[in-house]
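Reposting from the mailing list since nobody answered there.

I have sequence plus structure tokens for a pair of proteins and want to know whether others read the tokens the same way I do. The first protein:
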Amino acid sequence: MQFNLSVLLSQLFLGLVNGSFYAILSLGLAVIFGLLNIINFAHGALFMLGAVLTWMAMDYLGINYWIMLIAAPVVVGVFGILVERLFLRRLYKLDHLYGLLLTLGLTLLIEGAFRSVYGVSGLNYDTPELLQGSTDLGFMFLPDYRAWVVVVSLLVCTVTWYVIEKTRLGAYLRAGTENPRMVEAFGINVPLMITLTYAFGAGLAAFAGVLSAPIYQVSPLMGQNLIIVVFAVVVIGGMGSIMGSILTGLGLGLVEGLTKVFYPQASSTVVFVIMVIVLLIRPAGLFGKEK
């Protein structure tokens, strides 16, 4: 195979775009598992909800992308509050399997409902007019929208990590999951804090869905394949590790890009090969804490 630097750099950037989605989705999963101890298999459905709601708002109501970038995560976050209050709250002291089965069932219900209305064919969502151009980098024409996705994803991930790891609010969140009675003694409403944490994780998934709408075709099943990869990212980074999810998501996106250059046939499986290797060497993940 003839080496082509332009192709390599182009694929690396496309891998970075995919890695941005992996990072922001795995971040939401890590927040929910790390602070609530729930394996949220509904994350792919919440990602799909963000994209579908954005398409519906444009097609039915004429609401533009920029409004939905805020509105869709809020709506899905409110839905997350209902899910946590009605169902998940009863499962926190039970085995992880119960939460996984509940959220899996929820995924099937959400996807089935939208599939019965829209089918499985993709729905087109146009790139926002402000970001429809491209920039000539010499080795490739960089679509402005894809650059926007990378920048805003990194910004959201960095702010989330900082709030959880470096602020008093994050300290309360971490302490509330480990010793809720002690935190409640300081006058903090721990159940409300946990509810809002799940809502935030759901909102992150919806935010990624809005970002993805102009890149991928919007479909009720769009979260299925992606969420499997994202779970692998979380396992590799370490379950519950915020920084591990971010760095692993970006890194695996770049690895996928490299694989498409040198051995395209393995690009869809390389993440799972890495997961197996990491689990054999370090079962807690690259950034996870060994028990």
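The second protein, same order (residues first, tokens after):
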Amino acid sequence: MGIRPTFSIRDITRIAVFAAILAVLGLPGAITVFGGAVPITAQTLGVMLAGAILGPWRAAAAILVFEVLVLVGLPLLSGGRGGIAVFAGPSVGYLIGWIVGAFVIGLIARSGNREPRWWRTALGCAIGGIVVVYAIGIPFQSLITGLPLAQTALFSTAFLPGDIAKVIVATLVTQALWRAYPRAFEQTVRSTPELRVAAYNKSSDPE
């Protein structure tokens, strides 16, 4: 994982597709809690799926592309938010956390470029999509809002039920996609005869 990543045209296409998926997941809008400093959105699900399906580098690239589009003013975040002001607000730490979290999800879920297993996918989504995102997002939110760190962390527990549900959904979707269309994972799974056979026989796998 320490080598410099190289992206093919197909990789770039998948990166663009996942950036678009993030935008679509923002269409339902957001639920605000505790004054709405940081909204609850469905877009974290897209971050989890990107990491689990694309692997670390491509997932991070997809989130970065999405956030660059937001930065230049496209209203792609939930609630139609966009522009440089978003990156000066309480959500900025979570946006940074999405990039790092997607990378960590990919590292865990796609460890060794192996085929995805449900437990690795769930573990990766939980650590990268919840622990990492919170660890980066909460301190920034506390700093910008002026609330004590402990109080900000307590308020952030309102996100946990939804994020746990997203971990479950991301795991189920990833496993279903692996069984139905393993080519979606191309370039992140080593192309070996054993894996090609496994990919097309996953429906009979007890896992």
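Reply #1 (J.P.):
I read it the same way you do. The chain has eight helices and no strands.
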